[in-house]
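Field: sequence (string)
Field: structure_tokens (string)

Example rows 1 and 2, in order.
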Amino acid sequence: MNIRISTEALSGSDTNLLWSGALYGLKRLQEFDHQLYFLIEDLTKQQQQLLENEKIASIKTSPDTVDLQ
């Protein structure tokens, strides 16, 4: 399943962090073979680095092809 996640759902109140539990939730979704779509460029460099460290990436697809938003 392709899942679109809004940037606001990822970015925490601190521009250096993500919301509490975001990394865990994203990893769990990937473990169940769900594809994630989010606008990485809308996150700060620090937030992007957190995702990269956990090997969490956004798929390259059209927003129209997502199954769940």
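Row 2 begins here:
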Amino acid sequence: MNALRLNDVFRGTRIPRGLGTFEDDPDAALHDLLLGRSSLGSLAPAEPAQLLLDWLEGIGEPFVSTIDEALARWIEAHWGRPVLPGSAESPELSADAWCRAFEVIAAAESLPAALGALRGRMPEQRAFLSLLRSGRARDPEGRAWLALARNQTDRSLLPTWWWLVQLPPDAPWYYGALGICGLRGLPEEKRGSGGGFPREVAIGLAKLAKALAERCEDGWLEKSLAETEFLRTARTTMWAYNWHERWLGFWREQPPAEKGENQLAGSWISQLFPGKLEVVSETKVVSPKYQREPPRSWIPAIPRIVSSLNRRQPNALKDADALLHEQQHYAEQTGETHFVVRSACNFAKSARAWQPERALEWVRLARRFEPDNAFPWNTETSVLLELGRLLEARKQGLEAVRRFPYDPVTHATLGEVLHREGRLADAEAVYREATRRFTDDSVARSGLAEVLRAQGFLAEAERLYRQVLEQEPHNTYAQAGLRRIAQDRKARPTASELAEPQSRYEASPEQNLSFDEVEILVQDAFLVRRWPRRSGRNRASQAAGESGHARCSRNSAACLSNGRRSPTSAGCSVSSWVRSTNR
């Protein structure tokens, strides 16, 4: 027997069937148990996650450390795979396995290696988990949030919990309760404070009421379901913190934006203390810090600092850091992230040309508070472009287009990145799609003109620049573009004779997606369904009866499974993908 010493634990009695396999190969045994295919004998009816938790509690060390390390390796090996090996190609079985893994991390007392493997990938790399979601009962992403909420050692996830309680657009309605769980699991801001009234939790409940009411008003959620969810979450939370008078005072002091102006949310809140919230006490029970307004000095300070950054003044960086520190603290205390996100992005845009590293730090602060906001994503892509980190900028731009397909700046920014890389055909495709979707967007039209000029198609480039000037007569970028075209014609008299072939846009570009880009696209079921059906590269196989959609998807998946990372191994281009997203 090896180091687990199960015989010593069971003292000569029969080791439970299925447990002994952990001595020979803990990785394989854990994989089989999570998939529910272990041979457990009389223990077969037991839920695998609960069975593993019982073993962890009953056996102790060194079994706990062995499972911790095996679970960490399992997460690292399989993260990003919607379908696990040995699951009979079943997304349902794979989802169950991920749920069990996260349930074990959430409930076990100490699995530091497994928790670290999960924390290193959440929330940035969670897209594949949402694809496996089939409801509240089978939701790997929700289980992952719960595991993180119950095992917090610092307050670094506070912006994430604020984000969840406000129900971002891509989150199910029941994720607000997970945000409350995360707020409840935060360590104390000041050690030795002895607990006290949970300020963040109370504010989170108020924001949850507002977010659920907004879902109802938009027609995405039944009012009865939202009411039940809020009251259940609020009553359970308030019961856990026995501060009756403080809770009463908090709900009385809520500002109109969170109670009075939203009658639906206000009606739910009033049920927490029937007939008492309308009675105003002579003395305030709750400190005014719950309703603290942002300092008025911020309003003139923001444009002043932006101007200083544009002029590259010596004290500009220090002033920007000081204001962002104040606004970050305000956002952490109240959950109001507007100021810190806008300031950080605007400061980053102004400083990226001469302080790109500092700009990257600022914009990532903004994205941490609002990961569903296109502004930080686009700004970070621009900063990475300024730093010359083109591969990172392209990956960021592709992910931004996937997340925000209806944002014109996102498309224009990706086009700029591809142009800088020299991928002119792909940049042209992105810009053409942007001009088709956003007909009044002068930035996309100017970008397309510049890409065409770089390829020698001066006539069409000139036409596009003149369209921009008809729309915006004082557009300096278009004016400069026309001057560059005139210079090109003098330098290359034959360049103006080039014409744009009608079939060129439909042809397959020479440069293809990298492995990482294919991984982003193939894992997104929405994009897989809308993969291009026609491309120049697939016409031969189409003639043989095979659709471009099937060939492209199969080749891309094969590339992923075989681990080939060469740019030409995927068989699909950025331009063909962009064209397909609106079909």
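free_text_note (row 2): Residues 199-217 form the longest helix (19 residues).
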